[in-house]
Design goal:
Blueprint (H helix, E strand, L loop, with lengths): L5 E5 L9 E3 L5 E5 L4 E4 L8 E9 L2 E8 L9 H15 L3 E4 L2 H9 L1 H4 L1 E2 L2 H5 L1
Parallel strand pairs: 6-7
Antiparallel strand pairs: 1-7, 1-8, 2-3, 3-4, 4-5, 5-6
């Protein structure tokens, strides 16, 4: 089920630019603004993990989907993609509509670590 709550995010602290977010494991998320996606390519694999988004209005994005190939699931790749997207939303002062179930879960697990959400009651119902 799509998560249609619109949230406003604001930075809690300084973050690295969303163009490149990384994990201690050396994986890096790259922001491909032209194709409106974040990608991670572990171990120089031919396949890459992808988080796709689209602009739905002025200063508003829909975080639509994440996909991590089975060969590198369980390594924090989807979390890395999600954090890169959250950083992008904060840095650009965007409103985010979250349609992807994984990103919704990522935010709900520890929302204060990642972002501050207005109208929290809307997000949890």
């Amino acid at each position: 089920m799509a998560w249609n709550a619109v949230c406003r995010v604001s930075a809690l602290n300084k973050r690295r630019p969303a163009a490149f977010s990384s994990l201690s494991s050396g994986l890096t998320a790259e922001h491909d603004q032209q194709n409106r996606r974040f990608t991670v390519r572990p171990d120089r694999a031919p396949d890459c993990a992808v988080l796709r988004y689209r602009f739905t209005g002025d200063k508003e994005v829909d975080l639509m989907s994440t996909f991590v190939p089975e060969t590198f699931r369980g390594r924090g790749v989807a979390a890395l993609l999600s954090q890169a997207a959250m950083d992008f939303v904060v840095e650009e002062k965007l409103r985010a509509r979250v349609s992807c179930w994984y990103i919704k879960k990522y935010i709900e697990e520890d929302p204060l670590q990642h972002i501050t959400l207005e109208h929290m009651h809307e997000l949890l119902h």
